[in-house]
Amino acid sequence: MKTPFQEFLRYKEWKERFLKDYETIKSKDLSSQRKLYPELDERSLKALTCMYVGGYEKRLEDEDVRFWTNWAFLKTYKTFGGLSHLNEMELCFLFYSLGKIFVPLLLHEKGVKSESFKALSQEEQERAVSDVLDTVWENHFIRILQVLPSLFE
Questions:
Q1: In terms of Cα–Cα distance, which of 141, 7, 151, 3 is closest to 79?
Q2: pLDDT for 47-89, tens place per residue?
Q3: Surface-to-core class of residue 142, CB atoms within 10 Å of its CB (0-12 exposed, 13-18 middle, 19+ buried)
Q4: Distance between CA 68 and CA 111 in Å, rounded?
Q5: DSSP code, position 141
Q6: How many CA atoms, within 13 angstroms, populate the side-chain half-sphere of residue 86?
Q7: What does the pLDDT read at residue 25?
Q8: Is 84:126 a contact under the CB 8 Å cutoff?
Q9: Sign for the pseudo-dihedral over CA of 54, 55, 61, 65
Q10: Residue 10: its pLDDT value, please?
Q11: Does pLDDT of 1 surpass 60?
């Protein structure tokens, strides 16, 4: 049986790993992301990089996975108004966590690499990925936003 805090303990464990990864993230070259998204500021580009690292960067070498990860980042960032109330580290952790959850779902057997997904129109693909992203927002993203203050006090 799950304890009521089990999910929160997972995020605390992720924070420890994130803090180790964050040191290397801070020194990463953001020029490739800047070329793709010149409208994003440094803080946002770091958050996107954190989403890559959280999702295990090797997985994002695949063009389809990277495309949908970028798409989900932008959709999340815009939907939640840029999350300006978060400091840089909180924002980075939030997207690091989103990467840990969302990227493996893209690689699911019925994910973006499947023939059934590729057979969908662009609009249907966006709707399918958006449905998965909505579920992640409901089950994890909101919860992480709730625990962020206690994780980074």
A1: 141
A2: 999 999 998 888 888 899 999 999 999 999 999 999 999 999 9
A3: exposed
A4: 10
A5: I
A6: 25
A7: 84
A8: no
A9: negative
A10: 84
A11: no
Reply yes or no on whether the pLDDT at 153 is more than 90.
no
What average pLDDT does range 30-36 have in this prediction? 85
Q: Which two tokens stand for residue 116?
A: 């059934």
**Cα distances (angstroms) measured from residue 6 to each of 1, 2, 11, 50, 70:** 10, 6, 9, 24, 29
The answer to whether 100 and 14 are in contact (CB under 8 A) is yes
Place of tokens 């249907």: 124
* Rounded Cα gap, residues 76 and 83, in angstroms: 9
Q: Which helix or strand (DSSP H or E) is residue 35 part of?
A: helix 31-36
Residue type, 108: H
Q: What is the DSSP string of 125-137?
A: HHHHHHHHHHHHI
Q: Is residue 150 classed exposed, middle or buried when 0-12, 13-18 and 19+ CB atoms within 10 A define those classes?
A: exposed
